[in-house]
């Protein structure tokens, strides 16, 4: 199974990926033109412009394939139609951090929207994994780089 298969992403993730795909297609054309120009400069064995253009081509094509594959294989959810019975990608979860003795509100998002500083966390993150599938009243434990944390689910709602 490749990395994109089985990923659950939001419609915002889908829009972000589609936008990136368009940009990559434009970059592909631009890189092709750069290669054509660099070829015109003569001996390719000592042509740094050509080497750089070919490296750029490899990066663009690699990312292009990754984005296309993600768009084909990921599962996209409409945040507004999700149940609030259980924590899922696309829901907002208020928790009580039992170690810090404080409340936090996390928004579970797909990887393109992830921003830990804003508490927008991916379902693939340690806290996201612990929260997925939990219900109000459940206590979950997340294995984070800073150690294990326990959280009680207080509320699940739409974004």
TrEMBL record:
UniProt superkingdom: Bacteria
Residue span, Transcription elongation factor GreA/GreB N-terminal domain: 9-74
GO biological process: DNA-templated transcription elongation; regulation of DNA-templated transcription elongation
Coiled coil: 7-41
Keywords: Coiled coil, DNA-binding, Elongation factor, Protein biosynthesis, Transcription, Transcription regulation
Residues of the Transcription elongation factor GreA/GreB C-terminal domain: 83-157
GO molecular function: DNA binding; RNA polymerase binding; translation elongation factor activity
A Pfam family this chain is assigned to: GreA_GreB
Gene3D superfamilies per UniProt: Transcription elongation factor, GreA/GreB, C-terminal domain, Transcription elongation factor, GreA/GreB, N-terminal domain
Described function: Necessary for efficient RNA polymerase transcription elongation past template-encoded arresting sites. The arresting sites in DNA have the property of trapping a certain fraction of elongating RNA polymerases that pass through, resulting in locked ternary complexes. Cleavage of the nascent transcript by cleavage factors such as GreA or GreB allows the resumption of elongation from the new 3'terminus. GreA releases sequences of 2 to 3 nucleotides.
PANTHER family for the chain: TRANSCRIPTION ELONGATION FACTOR GREA
NCBIfam families in the record: greA (TIGR01462), PRK00226.1-4 (NF001263)
Family, per entry: Belongs to the GreA/GreB family.
Protein name per the record: Transcription elongation factor GreA
């Amino acid at each position: 199974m490749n990395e994109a298969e089985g990923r659950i992403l939001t419609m915002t993730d889908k829009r972000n990926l589609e936008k990136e795909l368009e940009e990559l297609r434009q970059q592909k054309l631009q890189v092709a033109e750069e290669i054509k120009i660099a070829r015109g400069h003569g001996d390719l064995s000592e042509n740094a412009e050509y080497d750089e253009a070919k490296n750029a081509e490899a990066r663009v094509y690699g990312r292009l394939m990754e984005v296309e594959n993600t768009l084909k294989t990921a599962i996209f959810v409409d945040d507004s139609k999700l149940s609030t019975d259980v924590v899922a990608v696309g829901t907002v979860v208020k928790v009580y951090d039992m170690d810090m003795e404080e409340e936090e509100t996390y928004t579970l998002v797909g990887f393109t929207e992830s921003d830990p500083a804003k508490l927008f966390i991916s379902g693939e993150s340690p806290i996201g994994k612990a929260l997925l599938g939990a219900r109000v009243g459940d206590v979950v434990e997340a294995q984070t780089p800073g150690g294990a944390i326990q959280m009680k689910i207080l509320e699940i709602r739409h974004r």
